[in-house]
Amino acid sequence: MKSQNCLLDLLSCLTRYYSKKVVLQRFLSSRKQRLLAQMAAAVAGISGRPIGRVGAILAMLSLGLTPAAHAQTPLATGPAATDTVRISLPDAEARFVQNNLQVLAQRYNITAQQALAIQARLIDNPTITLDQNALQQAIHRAGAVGDNPDLRRTQVAVQVQQLFALAGRRKAAGRVGQQAAVVEQFNLEDLVRNLRFQL
To answer: Which of 86, 88, 128, 142 lies 20 to 30 A from 172 at CA?
Structure first.
């Protein structure tokens, strides 16, 4: 049963890549012998008897997965085929994680949450308001008014406001901000795990 699931997984993986013929062509040309052996082993595990290389080739031909099954020009060999980049799976995963925009955005979310945690621990700044009624001076100039002292006076109001957090609310808000940053870190790890699973 397990080998049947492995074969189904292999076939579903290959059919997904079949839509991308260039990727499949390169995969089959570089790993043809190993793929044939794996197909033969998987089919032999299902039926209980080995089918050999010919059976594996026939199975691949029936699925349309061999290089001869679709009309494409063969890949160039020799000095003209230098555009192929060899990369290992851990290097591919590292590049994928480094260059993925979702991962970069999630890293910025972590930094933003850490900044909000620091901001929550700080004391609020005071607010100073200054109001002046300068309308009378603009309408009635000093020379035009004469000696009327009421028209020369302006009204000025100064207001200072300071918010005080009582009962440890500032420290509690800082701890909540730190926990939000930890949650964002876990969200990043979950995102990377899901992306590696999809890779």
So the answer is: 128
Rounded-to-integer distance, Cα 48 and Cα 159, Å: 90
Non-local CB neighbours of 12 within 8 Å, separated by 6+ positions: none
Q: Where are the beta strands (DSSP E) in the chain?
A: 127-133, 155-161
Alpha-carbon span 195 to 99, nearest angstrom: 12
Q: What are phi and psi of 195, to 5 degrees?
A: -70, -40
Q: Is 4 helix (H, G, I), strand (E, B) or coil?
A: helix
| Amino acid at position 178, single letter | Q
Tokens 């080998």: give the residue: 3
pLDDT of residue 150: 61
28, 35 Cβ separation under 8 angstroms: yes
Q: What pLDDT score was predicted for residue 110? A: 92
Strand-pair partners of 161: 127
Amino acid at 189: E
CA dihedral over 174, 177, 182, 185, signed as positive or negative: negative
